[in-house]
Amino acid sequence: xxxPAPAPAAVDPFAESVAEAxxxxxxxxxxxxxxxxAVRRAxxxxxxxxxxxxxxxxxxxxxxxAADALRPLLDDQVLADLMAGKDWPAMAGQMVLLQxxxxxxxxxxxxxxxxxxxxxQAVAANQARISAAGTDRWADLLTKTMPEGLxxxxxxxxxxxxxxxxxxxxxxxxxxDVAAFLTAAHGQGVGVDQAVAAxxxxxxxAAAPSAAPAAVVPAARPxxxxxxxxxxxxxxxxxPPLLPIRPRPRLRIRWRxxxx
Length: 260
What we know:
Oligomer: single chain
Largest sheet: none
Number of helices: 9
Distance between the termini: 137 Å
Structural class: mainly alpha
Order of helices and strands: HHHHHHHHH
Shape: elongated
Strand content: under 5%
Radius of gyration: 37 Å
Number of strands: 0
């Protein structure tokens, strides 16, 4: 007789929301650092003709130096998420290269840390709003009804999620099967995702918005119906049928003779 599997540990909603806020803040920090490094590379290439890179020995020292520089500025969970990422060594190198390029990290890093803190607080506040609005029931139903993927994650992480949950509650009060509705909504969401992917995959999808719009080709007009009385196309073609001749009606003139 097999031993039953242990029941999964209950998930702490608060801890889960804090982890999500930290991950989102770390993602925002990564994005800002990547943008800054791209600007640094472009500026160096435009002015020096080449982009500066770190030496091999410097690459090994950069992660520790970057962690010490960010520790006073970032939440512990945000910094832990950054350091756990595969891109952490490269990001630490970006910080070193930014400083070497003339960027004052004493001003630059606190600004990035403040931006990450704002993102962290916004996500945490949104999670608190969801719980306060009593939407946990609908989040559970959504998780059970929709398969894991982009559509479900987009709904739950959207700032409009509390409003969506309120609408689900209203539909439920009206007798609507919300689970079946969510299944249909998932199909629609997959279609939207595929449409976006197809549009981005087209050649020239990222063209400048100022480009002239493509000329609109008018739809082809239907060919006119053949004329049965048109002239024959070839020399041996049969003569066209004659138009039917209707007899003209005779005029009847009545004479009236008055006798005086």
